[in-house]
Amino acid sequence: MSDEAPPRIVTEDGVVAAAVYKDGVRLADVAIDDAGAWARRPGHVVWIGLYEPSPQLLDRVRRQFDLHPLAIEDAFKAHQFPKLEQYGESLFLVARTAQMQDGSIQFGETHLFVGRGYVVSVRHGASRSYAQVRARAEARAQRLSEGEDFILYAILDFIVDNYFPVLESVQGEVEQIEGGVLSPIMEQSRIQHLFDLRRDLLRLRNAVAPLVDVCRGLERTDVVAIDAEMRPLFRDVTDHIRRVQEGIDTMREVLAFAFEASLMNAQMIQTDIARRLAAWAGIIAVPTLIAGVYGMNFKNMPELDWRYGYPLALLTMATTCALLYRQFRRKGWL
Question: Of 12, 60, 82, 189, which one's alpha carbon is 20 to 30 angstroms from that of 46?
Fold first, then answer.
């Protein structure tokens, strides 16, 4: 194959972009069936982006770069835990992506195949297009000339950076919930939303945390030619991941406090209501008792014939109720 750039091709189903680069400069788009030959030429790097490809397309990619069948199977089925695996002279990475859709966090996956002369990204589910990653990389030819290690860094950095808008969106909702914590009664819908946010944040943390080990593995691997000056870039990605983790943990603590405070507030309201009911029950018990005793109509009750018996009973009821009411008011029960 000559160094002459191949003709521009029409992107097929599942292929977002497929191009070959030399010394950081894009030569042109390439066909999938020609990608392997270009990747084997010195100084050339093939960068292929796929979105929910078919098994047939993945098999064609596998044959071009001699990818491991198990990695191809994982890339097709998706639903993988973030990880870094080595297959011969190539690496297979899985990273989880996240986006806010309809007020909740939607998750996707990106699978990356990295080897000498090629990078293949396979996206599934909720994920922003990597077109802008490619555009920014092409605008920095000097960095792109670093080859597959810089492309890998650019994609991982983009994935991690897209966690921050999700966190900001969730933070706004968390602040609204926090502001309504001391309301007399938290509505059932708000409680359900609180639980949904905590669940989404936990899923986000489970997606983010393993990337720390992935980046550490990339700093130590000798399979892909990651230059010494490039390794700090992966440490920078690790720092961003930790910032995301801290933000997630902080918001989960706030939501936990909000729920506990709401629960304590509800218990205080119930306790106050119980005290009031108990106070009124105590007040009403006195006249009920007196009226019940004198309502039995026994014959041998001398005071029944006493001229002042009835006024005295009423006065006793009123006085006792007034004293009890005053005492309960002083204690804050009424």
Answer: 82
Question: Comparing 15-265 with 269-330, is the CATH topology the same?
Answer: no
Domain ranges of the chain: 15-265, 269-330
Dihedral angle at the C-alpha atoms of 321, 326, 327, 330, nearest 10 degrees?
A: 160
Rounded to the nearest 5°, which phi and psi values hold at 119?
Answer: -140, 125
CA distance 214 to 95: 9
**Which residues are CB-neighbours of 83 under 8 A, at least 6 positions away?**
93, 94, 210, 214
- Over residues 72-95, the pLDDT tens digits come to 988 888 777 888 888 888 889 999
Whole-structure pTM over 0.85, yes or no? no
Residue predicted with more confidence, 245 or 2: 245
3-state secondary structure of 185: coil
- B/e letters for 15-50, b = 16+ CB within 10 Å, e = fewer, are bbbbbbbbebebbebbbbebbbebbeeeebbbbbbb
CATH 1.20.58: does it fit domain 269-330? yes
Find, among 146, 252, 134, the residue nearest to 197 by Cα. 252
Lowest mean pLDDT among 65-69, 176-180, 182-186, 209-213: 182-186
b/e burial code for range 241-255 (CB count within 10 A of at least 16 → b): beebbebbeebbebb
CA 125, CA 97: separation in Å to the nearest integer? Answer: 8
Per-residue pLDDT tens for 205-214? Answer: 888 888 888 8
Place domain 15-265 in its CATH homologous superfamily: CorA soluble domain-like (3.30.460.20)
Q: How many other C-beta atoms lie within 10 A of the C-beta of residue 110? A: 25
Name the residue with tokens 């943990």. 249
Return d(Cα 186, Cα 11) in angstroms, integer.
53
pLDDT at 127: 82
What mean pLDDT do residues 102-126 have?
89
